Amino acid sequence: MTDSNQNDVKRRKVDLEDKELYDLLNLDDENVEGRKMLDAEAVIRVVRQKPWLATKEYTFSTDGLIYFPLIKAIKLRAPIEVIYALCCPEAMDGTTQALLFAIRHLASFDAVKLLLEKQPKLVKEQDPYSGFTPLHYACMRAPLETVSLLLDEWPEAAKEQRSGCLPLHYACRYATAEVVSLLLKIYPEAVRKKDMEGDTPLHAACYEERNLDLIVLLLDSYPETIQETNYDGNTPVDIAEERNAPEDIAKLLSYTSILFDDELQKETLEEIMSFFTEIQWWRGIWLIFKRHPAATQTINLDTGVKAHFLSAAGRFCKLTSMWE
In whole angstroms, what is the distance from residue 3 CA to residue 119 CA? Predict the structure, then answer.
């Protein structure tokens, strides 16, 4: 056999070895059935026997893109044991978007934690197209514990503005009130920031069908945001009306906006106070007294309501003299 023939045989053997891991991972990660076909035990076995296979990049035929096996496994939502087996420096050097893929493809909390333990700098990865950080994506789709993990690793991520948007803007559209609350604790000033369209986080929340607790949380943080207009001249109230917001949210926004009018009738204030009491928005009642102190002197609060209000309002100012 000539040297040329011997080299061809060696090359074919290498190609066959390379394909062993490739074939196990070359599955359709876009649907559940494709992901179910992953043989986790076989992947782990092959990588233990031939660890160098995890360091190679493959062009997977299912999408025609080039990935390290780790990235493909993340897209397949592979078990944590598979992710661990495929972790290697080559696949986590900060340019492969490993953590970004994990967040975007709904990886488990354990998988995200593992990636950060292996390579903490991944928390500062940026999407080459949008510039988004992992936290931006997490605020669109990840659970609270994942968002918290990312913020623990890099608190300044809450201040990172990409495409004109802070993570809070996306959280207000897609995440839970708990996620929004966490972001506000890390970066309270974010509630006042506008994106490239001039929208505040409250505007962002009004574009979607969010729950009352989230809207209250934003108004608690900065009631004056109700007056802000975006670059189209729309306030949060305008957007809520346009999007046919639920009645309780529409009322909350409208009543809060009305409070910034200079003069209001006692009957109007009583109506607003009744609604704020019903939803137990004590900061709102405090706002009534702050904005219209003279007009509220004749308004009587139920004893039980007064007790709740005074307890909650202690964070804002001491108001006991109002009823003396």
Answer: 43
